[in-house]
Design goal:
With 324 residues, the chain is of the alpha/beta class. The protein has helices spanning 17-23, 41-52, 55-66, 78-81, 113-130, 159-174, 225-228, 231-238, 252-255, 269-282, 296-302, 307-314; strands at 7-10, 30-33, 70-76, 136-140, 183-188, 204-209, 244-247, 286-289. The strands form 2 sheets. The chain has a 4-stranded parallel beta sheet. Strands 5-6-7-8 form a 4-stranded parallel beta sheet.
Protein backbone atom coordinates (compact mmCIF):
# COMPACT_ATOMS: atom_id res chain seq x y z
CA UNK A 1 0.00 0.00 0.00
CA UNK A 2 1.40 3.44 -0.90
CA UNK A 3 2.75 5.57 1.95
CA UNK A 4 0.48 8.50 1.02
CA UNK A 5 -2.76 7.46 -0.61
CA UNK A 6 -4.25 9.60 -3.33
CA UNK A 7 -7.50 8.07 -4.45
CA UNK A 8 -10.37 7.93 -6.92
CA UNK A 9 -13.56 6.15 -5.72
CA UNK A 10 -16.04 4.72 -8.23
CA UNK A 11 -19.22 2.67 -8.41
CA UNK A 12 -18.74 -0.93 -9.65
CA UNK A 13 -20.36 -0.19 -13.03
CA UNK A 14 -17.75 2.51 -13.72
CA UNK A 15 -14.82 0.07 -13.64
CA UNK A 16 -13.37 -0.28 -17.12
CA UNK A 17 -9.97 -1.08 -18.52
CA UNK A 18 -9.91 2.39 -20.06
CA UNK A 19 -10.42 4.01 -16.65
CA UNK A 20 -7.50 2.09 -15.19
CA UNK A 21 -5.20 3.05 -18.06
CA UNK A 22 -6.34 6.69 -17.95
CA UNK A 23 -5.61 6.94 -14.20
CA UNK A 24 -2.13 5.47 -14.59
CA UNK A 25 0.58 8.07 -14.22
CA UNK A 26 -1.76 10.86 -13.06
CA UNK A 27 -0.66 10.82 -9.43
CA UNK A 28 -3.63 8.71 -8.32
CA UNK A 29 -2.36 5.57 -6.58
CA UNK A 30 -5.51 4.10 -5.04
CA UNK A 31 -8.73 2.95 -6.68
CA UNK A 32 -11.76 2.62 -4.45
CA UNK A 33 -14.91 0.61 -5.12
CA UNK A 34 -18.03 2.07 -3.52
CA UNK A 35 -21.22 0.09 -4.25
CA UNK A 36 -23.37 3.12 -3.35
CA UNK A 37 -25.06 4.65 -0.34
CA UNK A 38 -28.65 5.43 0.48
CA UNK A 39 -31.36 3.15 1.82
CA UNK A 40 -30.42 0.26 -0.46
CA UNK A 41 -26.74 0.16 0.50
CA UNK A 42 -27.01 -3.39 1.93
CA UNK A 43 -28.45 -4.70 -1.35
CA UNK A 44 -25.80 -2.82 -3.32
CA UNK A 45 -23.03 -4.34 -1.21
CA UNK A 46 -24.46 -7.84 -1.65
CA UNK A 47 -24.61 -7.34 -5.43
CA UNK A 48 -21.06 -5.98 -5.41
CA UNK A 49 -19.75 -9.10 -3.67
CA UNK A 50 -21.27 -11.23 -6.45
CA UNK A 51 -19.82 -8.86 -9.06
CA UNK A 52 -16.38 -9.28 -7.52
CA UNK A 53 -16.57 -13.01 -8.26
CA UNK A 54 -16.99 -12.37 -11.99
CA UNK A 55 -13.93 -13.28 -14.03
CA UNK A 56 -13.92 -9.99 -15.95
CA UNK A 57 -14.04 -8.02 -12.70
CA UNK A 58 -11.10 -10.02 -11.39
CA UNK A 59 -9.15 -9.34 -14.58
CA UNK A 60 -9.74 -5.61 -14.36
CA UNK A 61 -8.81 -5.42 -10.68
CA UNK A 62 -5.66 -7.40 -11.38
CA UNK A 63 -4.85 -4.93 -14.15
CA UNK A 64 -5.31 -2.06 -11.70
CA UNK A 65 -2.79 -3.65 -9.33
CA UNK A 66 -0.39 -4.26 -12.19
CA UNK A 67 -0.64 -0.55 -13.05
CA UNK A 68 0.35 0.44 -9.52
CA UNK A 69 -3.06 1.12 -8.01
CA UNK A 70 -3.84 -0.18 -4.53
CA UNK A 71 -7.44 -1.30 -4.10
CA UNK A 72 -10.04 -0.52 -1.49
CA UNK A 73 -13.67 -1.44 -0.84
CA UNK A 74 -15.69 1.15 1.08
CA UNK A 75 -19.40 1.11 1.85
CA UNK A 76 -22.13 1.89 4.37
CA UNK A 77 -22.48 -1.55 5.90
CA UNK A 78 -24.48 -1.67 9.15
CA UNK A 79 -27.63 -3.11 7.57
CA UNK A 80 -25.55 -5.68 5.67
CA UNK A 81 -23.66 -6.80 8.76
CA UNK A 82 -26.81 -6.99 10.89
CA UNK A 83 -29.46 -8.30 8.46
CA UNK A 84 -32.82 -6.64 8.79
CA UNK A 85 -34.67 -9.97 8.87
CA UNK A 86 -33.32 -10.44 12.39
CA UNK A 87 -35.77 -7.78 13.56
CA UNK A 88 -38.59 -10.29 14.00
CA UNK A 89 -36.53 -12.41 16.39
CA UNK A 90 -34.40 -9.76 18.05
CA UNK A 91 -36.10 -6.34 17.97
CA UNK A 92 -33.94 -5.22 20.90
CA UNK A 93 -30.91 -5.38 18.57
CA UNK A 94 -32.32 -2.54 16.50
CA UNK A 95 -32.49 1.14 17.20
CA UNK A 96 -35.30 2.99 18.87
CA UNK A 97 -36.55 5.94 16.83
CA UNK A 98 -37.78 9.35 18.00
CA UNK A 99 -41.26 7.97 18.70
CA UNK A 100 -39.87 5.33 21.06
CA UNK A 101 -40.50 2.42 18.68
CA UNK A 102 -37.90 -0.13 17.64
CA UNK A 103 -37.30 -0.02 13.90
CA UNK A 104 -35.31 -2.15 11.45
CA UNK A 105 -34.62 0.93 9.33
CA UNK A 106 -31.00 1.94 9.60
CA UNK A 107 -28.13 1.08 11.93
CA UNK A 108 -28.78 -0.65 15.27
CA UNK A 109 -28.91 -0.28 19.02
CA UNK A 110 -25.35 0.70 19.85
CA UNK A 111 -25.82 -0.29 23.50
CA UNK A 112 -26.87 -3.86 22.79
CA UNK A 113 -23.97 -6.29 23.11
CA UNK A 114 -25.71 -8.96 21.04
CA UNK A 115 -26.22 -6.53 18.14
CA UNK A 116 -22.59 -5.43 18.24
CA UNK A 117 -21.42 -9.05 18.37
CA UNK A 118 -23.51 -9.81 15.29
CA UNK A 119 -21.91 -6.85 13.51
CA UNK A 120 -18.46 -8.23 14.38
CA UNK A 121 -19.45 -11.67 13.11
CA UNK A 122 -20.74 -10.18 9.87
CA UNK A 123 -17.57 -8.14 9.42
CA UNK A 124 -15.44 -11.23 9.95
CA UNK A 125 -17.45 -13.20 7.38
CA UNK A 126 -17.22 -10.42 4.79
CA UNK A 127 -13.47 -10.00 5.33
CA UNK A 128 -12.94 -13.74 4.87
CA UNK A 129 -15.00 -13.74 1.69
CA UNK A 130 -12.87 -10.94 0.22
CA UNK A 131 -9.84 -13.17 0.84
CA UNK A 132 -7.21 -10.44 0.71
CA UNK A 133 -8.25 -9.05 -2.67
CA UNK A 134 -8.36 -5.48 -1.36
CA UNK A 135 -5.53 -3.59 0.27
CA UNK A 136 -8.05 -1.84 2.48
CA UNK A 137 -11.65 -2.51 3.46
CA UNK A 138 -13.71 0.03 5.37
CA UNK A 139 -17.37 -0.22 6.34
CA UNK A 140 -19.40 2.60 7.84
CA UNK A 141 -22.75 3.01 9.62
CA UNK A 142 -25.79 3.31 7.39
CA UNK A 143 -26.20 6.31 5.11
CA UNK A 144 -29.04 8.05 6.93
CA UNK A 145 -29.46 11.21 8.96
CA UNK A 146 -30.93 11.06 12.47
CA UNK A 147 -29.80 7.44 12.47
CA UNK A 148 -28.91 7.14 16.13
CA UNK A 149 -30.73 4.95 18.65
CA UNK A 150 -32.93 6.72 21.21
CA UNK A 151 -33.25 3.91 23.77
CA UNK A 152 -32.57 4.74 27.42
CA UNK A 153 -28.92 3.67 27.20
CA UNK A 154 -28.17 5.15 23.78
CA UNK A 155 -29.72 8.52 24.64
CA UNK A 156 -26.65 9.09 26.78
CA UNK A 157 -24.48 8.78 23.65
CA UNK A 158 -24.10 11.16 20.74
CA UNK A 159 -24.56 9.89 17.18
CA UNK A 160 -20.76 10.05 16.86
CA UNK A 161 -20.32 7.90 19.98
CA UNK A 162 -22.78 5.35 18.61
CA UNK A 163 -21.06 5.36 15.21
CA UNK A 164 -17.72 4.73 16.89
CA UNK A 165 -19.13 1.76 18.80
CA UNK A 166 -20.30 0.30 15.49
CA UNK A 167 -16.89 0.97 13.88
CA UNK A 168 -15.09 -0.66 16.81
CA UNK A 169 -17.28 -3.74 16.37
CA UNK A 170 -16.49 -3.86 12.64
CA UNK A 171 -12.72 -3.69 13.06
CA UNK A 172 -12.94 -6.29 15.84
CA UNK A 173 -14.41 -8.70 13.28
CA UNK A 174 -11.82 -7.78 10.65
CA UNK A 175 -9.00 -8.47 13.11
CA UNK A 176 -10.14 -12.03 13.71
CA UNK A 177 -8.97 -12.60 10.14
CA UNK A 178 -6.07 -10.13 9.93
CA UNK A 179 -4.58 -8.88 13.18
CA UNK A 180 -3.36 -5.71 11.41
CA UNK A 181 -6.69 -4.82 9.74
CA UNK A 182 -8.01 -1.27 10.05
CA UNK A 183 -11.30 0.50 9.51
CA UNK A 184 -12.17 4.18 9.23
CA UNK A 185 -14.51 6.07 11.52
CA UNK A 186 -16.64 8.18 9.18
CA UNK A 187 -17.07 11.75 10.39
CA UNK A 188 -20.11 12.52 8.25
CA UNK A 189 -23.57 14.06 8.40
CA UNK A 190 -24.71 14.09 12.06
CA UNK A 191 -21.58 12.23 13.25
CA UNK A 192 -19.20 15.12 12.53
CA UNK A 193 -18.49 15.96 16.15
CA UNK A 194 -15.87 14.34 18.36
CA UNK A 195 -17.06 11.26 20.30
CA UNK A 196 -17.21 12.04 24.00
CA UNK A 197 -17.79 8.69 25.76
CA UNK A 198 -16.39 6.04 23.42
CA UNK A 199 -12.72 5.60 22.54
CA UNK A 200 -11.49 4.24 19.20
CA UNK A 201 -10.39 0.60 19.31
CA UNK A 202 -7.15 -0.68 17.78
CA UNK A 203 -7.08 -0.13 14.04
CA UNK A 204 -9.66 2.68 13.90
CA UNK A 205 -8.62 5.85 12.09
CA UNK A 206 -10.40 9.05 11.02
CA UNK A 207 -12.18 9.52 7.71
CA UNK A 208 -13.69 12.96 7.16
CA UNK A 209 -16.46 13.39 4.57
CA UNK A 210 -17.95 16.92 4.33
CA UNK A 211 -20.96 16.05 2.19
CA UNK A 212 -22.90 19.21 3.04
CA UNK A 213 -20.09 21.61 2.12
CA UNK A 214 -20.44 24.26 -0.57
CA UNK A 215 -18.20 22.81 -3.26
CA UNK A 216 -18.03 26.11 -5.10
CA UNK A 217 -16.00 27.62 -2.24
CA UNK A 218 -12.85 26.35 -0.50
CA UNK A 219 -13.66 24.12 2.42
CA UNK A 220 -11.81 26.57 4.68
CA UNK A 221 -14.18 29.40 3.70
CA UNK A 222 -16.39 30.61 6.58
CA UNK A 223 -19.44 29.45 4.59
CA UNK A 224 -18.28 25.87 5.23
CA UNK A 225 -17.68 26.26 8.95
CA UNK A 226 -20.61 23.95 9.74
CA UNK A 227 -18.58 21.12 8.20
CA UNK A 228 -15.10 22.05 9.38
CA UNK A 229 -15.86 23.14 12.94
CA UNK A 230 -14.54 19.95 14.56
CA UNK A 231 -11.65 19.03 12.22
CA UNK A 232 -8.85 19.99 14.59
CA UNK A 233 -10.47 18.20 17.54
CA UNK A 234 -11.20 15.11 15.44
CA UNK A 235 -7.56 14.87 14.37
CA UNK A 236 -6.41 15.31 17.97
CA UNK A 237 -8.85 12.62 19.13
CA UNK A 238 -8.12 9.99 16.46
CA UNK A 239 -4.56 11.03 15.58
CA UNK A 240 -3.25 11.88 12.14
CA UNK A 241 -1.91 8.41 11.32
CA UNK A 242 -3.90 6.99 8.39
CA UNK A 243 -6.33 9.93 8.63
CA UNK A 244 -8.13 10.45 5.35
CA UNK A 245 -10.28 13.03 3.64
CA UNK A 246 -13.18 11.64 1.61
CA UNK A 247 -14.07 14.60 -0.60
CA UNK A 248 -16.56 15.28 -3.37
CA UNK A 249 -14.39 17.21 -5.83
CA UNK A 250 -15.32 14.89 -8.71
CA UNK A 251 -18.36 13.13 -7.27
CA UNK A 252 -20.74 13.54 -10.16
CA UNK A 253 -23.36 11.41 -8.41
CA UNK A 254 -23.67 14.20 -5.83
CA UNK A 255 -23.72 16.91 -8.50
CA UNK A 256 -26.36 14.87 -10.38
CA UNK A 257 -28.46 14.44 -7.22
CA UNK A 258 -27.75 10.68 -7.38
CA UNK A 259 -29.97 10.37 -10.45
CA UNK A 260 -29.07 9.16 -13.91
CA UNK A 261 -28.51 10.21 -16.63
CA UNK A 262 -25.55 12.10 -15.16
CA UNK A 263 -25.16 15.81 -15.51
CA UNK A 264 -21.91 17.28 -16.78
CA UNK A 265 -19.34 17.43 -14.00
CA UNK A 266 -18.72 20.81 -12.41
CA UNK A 267 -15.02 20.59 -11.56
CA UNK A 268 -13.41 23.51 -9.72
CA UNK A 269 -9.64 22.94 -9.81
CA UNK A 270 -8.84 26.22 -8.03
CA UNK A 271 -11.10 25.22 -5.12
CA UNK A 272 -9.63 21.73 -5.03
CA UNK A 273 -6.10 23.10 -4.98
CA UNK A 274 -6.90 25.30 -1.95
CA UNK A 275 -8.64 22.38 -0.26
CA UNK A 276 -5.66 20.08 -0.70
CA UNK A 277 -3.35 22.71 0.77
CA UNK A 278 -5.72 23.19 3.72
CA UNK A 279 -6.16 19.49 4.47
CA UNK A 280 -2.44 18.80 4.34
CA UNK A 281 -1.76 21.77 6.61
CA UNK A 282 -4.21 20.30 9.14
CA UNK A 283 -2.27 17.03 9.15
CA UNK A 284 -4.38 14.65 7.07
CA UNK A 285 -2.31 11.80 5.67
CA UNK A 286 -4.45 10.65 2.74
CA UNK A 287 -6.76 12.36 0.27
CA UNK A 288 -9.38 10.96 -2.06
CA UNK A 289 -12.69 11.86 -3.68
CA UNK A 290 -15.78 9.99 -4.65
CA UNK A 291 -15.78 9.95 -8.44
CA UNK A 292 -19.09 8.26 -9.19
CA UNK A 293 -21.28 8.72 -12.29
CA UNK A 294 -18.19 9.29 -14.45
CA UNK A 295 -18.30 5.93 -16.21
CA UNK A 296 -18.98 4.92 -19.82
CA UNK A 297 -22.37 6.66 -20.00
CA UNK A 298 -20.83 9.92 -18.82
CA UNK A 299 -17.89 9.67 -21.23
CA UNK A 300 -20.22 9.02 -24.15
CA UNK A 301 -22.19 12.16 -23.31
CA UNK A 302 -19.46 14.58 -22.22
CA UNK A 303 -16.02 13.14 -22.89
CA UNK A 304 -13.29 12.15 -20.44
CA UNK A 305 -13.33 13.34 -16.83
CA UNK A 306 -10.35 15.48 -15.72
CA UNK A 307 -8.18 12.58 -14.59
CA UNK A 308 -4.88 14.32 -15.22
CA UNK A 309 -5.60 17.67 -13.59
CA UNK A 310 -7.17 15.97 -10.59
CA UNK A 311 -4.15 13.72 -10.13
CA UNK A 312 -1.68 16.57 -10.51
CA UNK A 313 -3.44 18.62 -7.84
CA UNK A 314 -3.52 15.65 -5.43
CA UNK A 315 0.17 14.96 -5.96
CA UNK A 316 1.21 18.61 -5.83
CA UNK A 317 2.21 18.75 -9.50
CA UNK A 318 -0.35 21.21 -10.85
CA UNK A 319 2.37 23.43 -12.25
CA UNK A 320 3.07 20.68 -14.77
CA UNK A 321 -0.46 20.92 -16.24
CA UNK A 322 -1.20 20.01 -19.78
CA UNK A 323 -4.53 19.80 -21.55
CA UNK A 324 -6.52 16.71 -20.47
Amino acid sequence: MPESRRGWIINPGDLTEELILDLSGTGVNELGIHPGGGRRAADKLAACLDWLDDSETKRRLDLAKDRGLSLELCEHGASFLLPREEFRRRPEWFRQDESGERTPFGNLCASNGGALDRVSDGAEALYRRLNGRFDRVTLWPDDITNGGCRCESCRKLSVADQALRITNAIVKGFRRVDSEAKCGFLAYQDALEVPKQVRPGPGVYLEYAPIHRDSGLPVSDPANLHETLHIKELLEFFGVQDSRVLEYWVDNSRFSNWTRPPKQLVFCPEVMEKDVEYYLSMGFADLTSFACFLGPDYIQMYGLPPYGEYGRILSGRRGQMSTD
